[in-house]
Amino acid sequence: xxxxxxxxxxQFLIGERVLRFGLREFALITGLRCHEIPNxxxxxxxxGGRLKWVYFENLKTVTRQYLNVMFxxxxxxxxxxxxxxxxxxxxxxxxxxxxxxxxxxxxxxxMVDDDEVFDxxxxxxxxxxxxxxxxxxxxxxxxxxxxxxxxxxxxxQKVFDSPTLEVSPMLATPDEAFFAPFIETKKDILxxxxxxxxxxxxxxxx
Length: 206
Prior knowledge:
With 206 residues, the protein is mainly alpha-helical. The chain has one domain (9-205). Helices cover 50% and strands 6% of the residues. It is built from ten helices and two strands. Strand 1 and strand 2 form a beta hairpin. Residues 5-132 form the DUF1985 domain. InterPro entries: DUF1985 (IPR015410). This is DUF1985 domain-containing protein. It comes from Cucumis melo var. makuwa.
């Protein structure tokens, strides 16, 4: 990968040729929506904030791990809510995983209440911009000069094998699915999620 000269594309030196990978190529490969990112007014979102109020009202941040637990516990609300949580989990854990931050964007939680807004949003463009930013910063790190091309070993260690580029698996293996009920996490996040859900339901029924 070449030293970045543009923030809108990736450049790769293959042989003696520089190949460019931009938004057009990304859209053709992924099939995702990549049009201009619109300004979203929360007041125009149908039901915006309901999911946040019901499931995450007392939380300052929502992690991808917590979102996964809320989606998987059997008491996680209606089928419609489970679909919304599945959309959020897929978006935050697979499509646009954030390298430095493991929390879910509150705007996304509000937007998912409106199917038309959420499904029509250019998530492909968001994912591409995050990809370009991460790759360019990875290549520029560790004091490389402007004329230095990174070796494949460096690129592999800093990008493809980077522990900060975390993508959570979407499907568990049969063994993971079997042992999941017996695994205890350090923070006991399952119990935390269930307690939070019961508390919110109690508030709604009073």
